[in-house]
Every structure is written in C-alpha cells, then in structure tokens.
Amino acid sequence: MPEARKTGILFSKLYSFACFLCNFEDSHAQIGQRGYSRLVYCNDPDNPVQVQLKYRGNYVSTTKYTVANFIPKALFEQFRRVANIYFLVVACVSFSPLAPYSAPSVLIPLLVVIGATMAKEGVEDWRRRTQDIEANNRKVKVYRNYRFDEIKWKELRVGDLVKVCKNEYFPADVVLLSSSYEDGICYVETMNLDGETNLKLKHALEVTSHLCDGESFRQFRAVIKCEDPNENLYTFVGALRYDGKEYPLSIKQMLLRDSKLKNTEFIYGVVVFTGHDTKVMRNATDPPSKRSKIEKRMDKIIYILFSTLILTAFVGSVFFGIETRKDISDGKYRRWYLRPDDAPVFYDPRRAPLAGFLHFLTALMLYGYLIPISLYVSIEIVKVLQSIFINQDQDMYDEETDRPAHARTSNLNEELGQVYTILSDKTGTLTCNSMEFVKGSIAGTVYGRVMTEVERTLMTKMREAGDVSIDQQGPDGDSDDSRKSIRGFNFRDERIMNGQWVNEPNADIIQKFFRVLAICHTAVPVENKETGEISYEAESPDEAAFIIAAREVGFEFYGRTQKRILLRELDYETGKKVDRSYFFYSYSQTVSLANSSLSEIKLLELVPREYELLQVLEFSSSRKRMSVIVRNMENQLLLLCKGADSVMFERLSKDGWLFEAETKDHIKKFAEAGLRTMVIAFRELGEEEYKSWEDEFEKAKTSVTADREMLVDEIADKIEKDLFLLGAAAVEDKLQQGVPECIEKLARAGIKIWVLTGDKMETAVNIGYACSLLRQEMKQIVITLDSPDIGALEKQGDKEAIAKASLESIRKQIREGISQIKSAKESTTELGPQKSAIEFGLIIDGKSLDVSLKKNMEKSLFELASNCSSVICCRSSPKQKALVTRLVKNETGKTTLSVGDGANDVGMLQEADIGVGISGVEGRQAVMASDYSIAQFRFLERLLLVHGHWCYRRIAMMICYFFYKNITFGMTLLWFEAHASFSGQPAYNDWYMAFYNVFFTSLPVIALGVFDQDVSARLCLQYPLLYSEGIENILFSWPRILGWMSNGVISSIIIFFVTTKSMIPQAFRKDGQVVDYGILGATMCTCVVWAVNCQMALSINYFTWVQHLVIWGSIGLWYIFLVIYGFLPPTLSTTAHQVLGEACAPSVLYWLVTLLVVISALLPYFFYRAFQTRFRPMYHDIIQMKRLEESEIGNSAELPRKVKDKLRHLTERLMHREL
C-alpha cells in the first residue's frame, strides 16, 4: 500500500538557492576515468558485473584487534616497552649457566605481567567491539522480493534500495531517489558530521521523485557511475543512467551515513558507498596517541636505572676480573678453597678478562631488580580503577539528561591534575544551545523586561563595587510567574503581551515586525492530533524561537501550502468576540481599543489571514540574510527580510532608516547582554518592478552556465534593497548551570582559560563577564581589524594592500599590549607587595587571529596571551581552534585541555593533551573523539580539582614509591655481591626475588594509587590553590624523584650493613651455630619487606580498611610463603628449606634485628617529613595543618601567623607566576 505523501508543498519550487537543478560540469567529464570509476546497479546488487567488482560490505569495525591478530599484535605492543624487552632477554638467558637464578623465577612473573596487560587490552577492545555490534545490528528497510523488509545494517549491499524514516540515521551513503514530499526534497541533520545544528536541504532528481512505493520500484533499474570512495564530505560527482538518459548527480542528492533524517516522514534511496567506504568512515582517523607527561618522565627514569644497572654491572665485573686474576700469582693459590686450578670458564684466573665479561652478563641479570617489572601493569590496574571511580561519581551525574561522567581512556588520569590551560568552546559548552526570544527593538523602542544572565551578573558585580545607581533599575519583568513556561520564549513586557501592543504609539510597526517573524522562514508546523498544540520543525533554534515569539504575541503561524502561508493574527481594529478555539485572552486586563471604553474587557480576535508565497530567498552563511516575497490579502506585494546587522543596514532606503541610530544602539546593548540579534526589515514592491525582477530571476535559475549560483545571488541582491527598518529581535543562549562559579574556581586554582567561539566580539565579551571569565577589575586588550583604514582598503579590493596593512596593524596592537602589561608589572613592583597585581584579559577576533597565527607572528601573540589571565578568541573557525590549541600546547610545554560539544570541536579536542567532550545537543561526535566526557561544563570543576588532583598525586607517589622499593631491594643485592667479592651470587633465594614485586609489595602500592587522599573532596573544592601542586609538578619533580631514589639507597645500606654486622659475628642457634647463607638471606629479605611496607604506611595520608589489609596482609603473606615454601623438598626450596620454622622463628636475634633494622630504615624519611612539614610545608601540608587547627580550637580560630604568611606568599607567587 503506498504511503501518504505530502502533495501540497513543493519546496523545490520555493527555494531559490538550495534546489538548483544539477547540470553537467567539468568534473562530470572525469567519470569513467581513474578515481571516478565506481559502478552501482540500482535495485540489482546481484548483477554479475557488480559482483565481480567485490565492493565492501556494510560491516564497520573500530576495534584494534581481531581474533586472528590479537596475540601477535598485543605482544608487539607489550614489547615496544624497553623494560619488557629487557626482561624477555633476561628470561631467555636465564636458561643458560650465566643466570644467577633459575629460569622459572624470571619467566613466571614476566608472563603474569604481560598476560595481565594483554587481558586489559582485550577487555577494552571487546567494549569497542560491543559498540560496533550495536551499530552493525541496527535495522533498516530494504527492497527485496518486491517488498521492503527489515535487515541489519551489516547486511546492506551496494545497489540496495532502502527506506529511511523520520529521525532515523542513514545506514550508508545513499543517493536520494524520492521522499514523502511530492517533489522529492528532505531535511537532513548533519551535526554528527560537521557540528552544525541547522538542517540541510537535499532534493532528488525530478526523474526519480515519482517513485513512492513498492510497485513503482518493481521495474526500476538504473546505473550510477560516480567517484571512487573518498573523504570529502562536501562534494560528490556522479551520473544516473535511467530510461536511456543520463542525469548529473551532486552532493545535493547524497545522504551521508550517520546523518539523520528530520522534518521528513520517509525517503527512498539507493546505496552507493558502504562500511569503510562511506565518507564519514573515510574521515574517521585513529585518535592521536596521547601519553601523560608523568609517563614520559617515567621512561627517562627507566633509562637512568638502565644506565645505573649497566654501570654497576661494569664496575662489579672489573673488580671481579681483578680479584679473579689474583687467585693465581707466581704459581701460588690465593683463594685455594675456590680451586682456581680447576675452575670453569666463569671463574678461570688464566682467562680473567673473559670471566669478567661473562660476569658482566650475569650482573645485568642479577641487578635487573632495579627495574620494576610490575610497574607498568600496576599503573594500568590503578588507572582503570581510577576511571571506574570517575564514572561512578554521583556528583558528576546529570539527572536531566541521565548522563554520568565517562572516562573514555584511562591513560591520562594524572594529566587531569596538571592542566595549565583550558581552551573551551562557547555555544553548547558554556551555554545551553537552546534559544529563547527575550528582547526586541521595535521602532526605536526596547521591549522585553527579562534580565539576561549576563545582565544579572553585571548587576551583581556593580553592586559589589558599590554602584548605588543600580538600585534605580526597573523591574526585570519576572514577577508574572503565572504564565506557563514556553520553550523558546522568555519574553515579558506588559506593553506587548496580552494584546497590549495595540496601545503603543507605533502599533502598526509592531504588527509588521511580528508578521515578518511569523512569515519569513522555512519552518513546517506540526499539529499534535491529541492536544491540538502546534510545534514547529525549523532549520535552526533561532528560527523556531522567532516563530514562537510571533505566536505568543498574537501572530500564530499554523499552516502552509505550496503557495500559501496561513496565520491567525490579532485583529486590533475590531472589538468582536471570537470563537473560543481561536481566542487570544488578555487575562483580567482592560484593553483599550479603537472606539472602545477603557473599562471594557474584551476577547481579542485572532483573524485567519493568508499570504501568497511567491519567492523564498533562503539564508546562507555567505548571504547572512533571508527574504520572502509574499502577496497579502490587500493585494500588496511585500518583501520581508531578516538578517545580520553587518549586511542589513547597508540595504536600507533613504526613508527606511528612521530608527537606525536607536536600533544600532540597542543591538550593541543586546550584544553586551550576551544576546544574538537579527535585524528585521521590509519593503513594498511594485507590480512592474517585481514582474521584471521575477523574469530575470527565473532566467538565471534555469541557466546552465558554470557561474549560475553567483548570477542568481547577484539578481537576488537587486531586490533586497531599499528596505524599511522595523527593528531587531534578540534571542538568548543561556549559560549552563554553575558555569560562572566553575570558571571562577578554576581561575583561583591557577588555570588559564581561553574561550574559542564563533560569536561576534560583543556577545563573546559579555558572556565572558557572565561566566566570570572577565571581571570588572580586569583591563581589556582588544586586537581587531575592525578599523576605518582596513575597511577602506577592503572596499577598494586590493588584497595585497589589505594583507600588508592587516599585518602591520596586528603587529602594532600586539606590541602595545605587551608594553601595557610590562608597564603594569613595573608599577606593581615599585608600589611593593601591598599593591595587588593588575589582571589583563585579551580579546581577539577571527581575522586578527588568522593573521597572528602566521609563523612570524604566533610567538608574539603567545607572549601577549600568556601574560593575560583570560583570553577570548571571537569568530574562530574549527581550523583556527585547532591551531590555537597546538600553539598553546607547544609554547607552554604544559598540559592543555580542550572542551567542546560539537563535531567542529573535534580537531581542538584531538590536538590538546586532554580532550573533554560535553554530551550536549550537537550530537556525539565530540564525545566520541574525546578522552573524557561530561554532561555539563560545571562538572569540569570536580573532574580537575578533585579527581585530577587525587589521580596526579596518587600516580606520582606510586611511581616514586615503586622506584624506592626496587632500589632498596636491588641495592642490597649489590652490597651483598660486593661482600662476596662480586662473585655473582644473589643474596636471596630465587623465589624471594621472583615474588618480591608480584606478591609482597604490589598490593599496597596499588591501594595507594586507588584510595589515598591528601585532603577530602570538600577541601579540594574549598581550596583550589591546592591544585597548583600539579601545575607546578611538585610531586613528580626531579628533586623529589631523586629524593625517593636516595631514600632507597640509604634504606638498602641500613638494611644490609645493620643486618650483617648484627648477625654474622653472633651465634644464631642454640647449639652455637652462626648465621648461614640461607638465614642471612631470609632475615635481610624480611627486613626489606617490613621496611618498604612500613614506609608505605608512613606515606599514606588517608587510611581505609583496604590499606590496612594490603599493607599488613603483604607482610603476613611473606611469612606464609616462607612456611609453605620451606615445607617443600630441599631440591625445590633449596636455601629456604624450613628456614623460618626451624631457624629464624625460634631465634630472638632474628626478631630483634628485624625490629632494629626496620626502625633504622624508616628514621631518615620520618625526620625529613617532620622537618619539611614544620619549616617548608607544601600546599596540602598547610591545608592539613589548618584542618587540624580547626579541629583543636574550633572553626572560628585563626591560622598560626607563620601558616597564614606562607599561604599568602603562595597565593602571591601563583598570581605572579610566569611561564
């Protein structure tokens, strides 16, 4: 049964620009040549010719691995790490006699570490596969066996005929054949592709637009010849051969995968590109590989340890060679008990250099415990657990959208705690991207009493500054709370609402103003059959807001046909009562009408009116305006126009600029209030003038010349002139909840914030004030090319002169800005520390930015911007956003974070060190390209100040502690080997060394990385200054890293020498036996396990039961291991056989030495922390001291003077911090 089509409206006959008939152009001549050789047999996917071409299927995979390549590829990824390669070589060499320990003791830990990391990679890739499965299994209707049946997306083939319904995504790249509209047009939402919320108009070829049901497709056969798969989203070259004729195809017939059908009930199309051949998949690049700065520094530390390992092995080998050579001197044996006369090659005094070299290889394996084998896998585990905590944080869950925060990668958690610069989009990121009509300037009078968020913020700032004139402001109009909240309409003014506008002096102009809003658009009204309410399917949120505003004032757009626009207008010339279904009620207010008494209360009549629609000159980014030509019921020809002020004022007639000065002033004030404006104008046309223009216009539209679009635009420009100005309409894109507070707190944390927006300068600046990015006390440095000199050159059209003048102007403005900042700093220095530093805000427009980003200017621009507290870049393109992000990242060398919500922000998100996507109304493209996603900008505060600070601190401490515990353990091997004449003999049993990193010390460090908190989340938010520890990288600086390494060396010295000096000279057993090799190794290893775990207990700030369990449990596990391992046969347990039960445990000396050594090893760190906390406290120390002080003497108590001075000093240091 054929589906109902909208036969009343042929939009292709209305649109002047979007529905040009496609002509063969030069590019079509390339069809059949290389790059343009694709053949598609429509409705015949099994055609033998097409089958031989072997086109790709529609299955899409974004996974990194497959079942076949997982093991080899994952192994390759693991052994890209130098440490893993080292341990693999050691494991292989451990099967030779050179190894100081058994092969399994090295191989098993390596397999555990590599296996765990590969398992994590597999789980993450399986999640990506799950998403792919979900996408590939979506359903689409395909014409097969003479009917449309549902199949999965992945089963779709090139040549299939598909039917896509309203609000569904296109499953592949499809050529439009027909739609629910009779003339084959449809509307497409492309925000997933380009971030634009405006709907795009597509139209089918006239020859196929009649195809509308299964019967009409039964005999349909055609061949499409087109370009090969490519990544260009904005062009398509092809030709359709049908019924013996060939018709050109362009991008206007192409519906791209992942775009959505809107405002159209259904479309029919033929699949041209599938799967990875689609344009969106061709544009899908692998996200850049991002590594945190801590991880990069960790690699350098690994190299340092490798160098230390090699140096130590070399020095030991030299000493070993010298000592071995001395074993035979003049035929005498020095160490006769070693039997140098019958020694193998490893200890042969006659071949001492070779023995030394072989010892070098042995030492490389022996000292390998300096390199933490489990470091990488432990960090991976910790980061995954940290990401889970981020995902489950209820304080970052948005109830309205039902969206939590989501860490899409775990590799950058610690980077969240080191962000130096945030680069943010504005629309949809700082604002809601939901337009509301709030104000209007009509006939030189401002209407609309609702205060915008920008105005509220400015008023608050002025009140704080003590401006008493603020109290004289009028009411904001919000007192009428009885009105139902209407989406898109937030206008309050008793002079306009409820029909009161009829009493205004310029009621006729007000009427024309709202008529333009109600008529000049391409929206389609949709009536809810159940409630009778009318909603509008518009091409943009702005357009919908204007139509709703007109309806609420009394000009209701309720229907349209091919040639008619239907309104219900408020008739203020009659006093008749009306049908209740159409009345416009004025509540209890008295309406003064013509010929009516003031006390008479009337129902105002909504009179149906029809307007004959003659032409639609639709909006485009180049035209920046839209016009319609209509004939009213009085037979008047009217051109109604709305557009940007930059193109509208120049089109006014000599008699049409009566209110120009007032309107321009109001537009400026609207922009200062953070509003977007649209100038409204009209003109009455003469019959002869219109007839002459129409003939010329139709001739241009049907021409076949290459410059047809330019010709049509020029002719349209001829009639869009001599306009009469009615006023300007203003809509507000509201700030998201909590944005000002969030930005203010991030600024207090020392984070520089840049806003990159496409809005005009006035709007962007005042949004900056509203969200606390700019403050009243700030001095503004404005860089712009909007000057009379540049304007005069632009009118002359001399591009070289414009470029030269622009470059000189920008260079001069940047120099002046830098000079202004230097002068301010010098004056502050002269006045002393009591004088607070002057803050600067930089505002730069898109043209200036384009000039400034050239190679010879970008460093100067960055020098200026880096000395400003806030930076706003206006009129920025997506490319400029990415270039600015790259500039900041490269020049600062510090962590940059970009945040955005649209596809136009993807470049910026991928260029930054961290990309944060806002899951807003502009689709999911930004989220899919991001590293972290949040539902609202305000959640960035908690993501950085709480989770970022915690993750940075945890990872930094974890890595430092890892190196500490491995150096402590590894250096005891060195001291013991030196004690044993560098013989290559390890101090410990093989399995002591194998399990040290895996079982005895790994869990406490993982618990540290997951649970430790220096301060609570509340205090992190209360004291944003704490975040600067990460910006300055205090916790992972080279002095701190080397300090922990030195602590490891000191601990190893204490453990080895105190243990050996205490035990070796003494009788250990009751029978007088002294300490043997097995007992000494067990005792020393016991001291190491106790010392490093107790060191962890000293370092932890926030104890939970988990920390207690893993720290004391790891120590207990050591003793359990000794017991179990000691019970194994001597052939397996070797030196550890019954070492605890029979030897160590019964000896008091063993326990006393353990206690003495552990206390001695912990004292250096204890004394250092005591000194540091008292005399050189870090930021978190100061906050902990304040918390302790408050708990002791009450919340009203003040901080000690020294602490207050320190806090003030740190604040001033942060304010004056330079790059």
UniProtKB/TrEMBL annotation:
One of its GO terms (molecular function) is ATP hydrolysis activity. This is Phospholipid-transporting ATPase. Signal peptide: none annotated. PROSITE patterns: ATPASE_E1_E2. InterPro entries: ATPase_P-typ_cyto_dom_N, ATPase_P-typ_P_site, ATPase_P-typ_TM_dom_sf, ATPase_P-typ_transduc_dom_A_sf, ATPase_P-type_domA, HAD-like_sf, HAD_sf, P-type_ATPase_IV. Its cofactor is Mg(2+). It is a multi-pass membrane protein. It is found in: Endomembrane system; Membrane. Keywords: ATP-binding, Magnesium, Membrane, Metal-binding, Nucleotide-binding, Translocase, Transmembrane, Transmembrane helix. GO terms for biological process: phospholipid translocation. Its EC number is 7.6.2.1. GO terms for cellular component: endoplasmic reticulum; plasma membrane. Belongs to the cation transport ATPase (P-type) (TC 3.A.3) family. Type IV subfamily. Mg(2+) binds at residues 425, 427, 901, 905. Residues 465-485 are annotated as: Disordered. Residues 927-1177 form the P-type ATPase C-terminal domain. Residues 40-102 form the P-type ATPase N-terminal domain. The active site is at 425 (4-aspartylphosphate intermediate). NCBIfam families: ATPase-Plipid, ATPase_P-type. Pfam families: Cation_ATPase, E1-E2_ATPase, PhoLip_ATPase_C, PhoLip_ATPase_N. It comes from Morella rubra. ATP binds at residues 425-427, 543, 619, 642, 676, 757-759, 875, 881, 904-905. The chain crosses the membrane at residues 82-100, 106-123, 301-322, 357-379, 955-976, 991-1011, 1041-1059, 1079-1102, 1109-1128, 1148-1168. Residues 136-202 form the P-type ATPase A domain. It is an enzyme of class 7 (translocase).
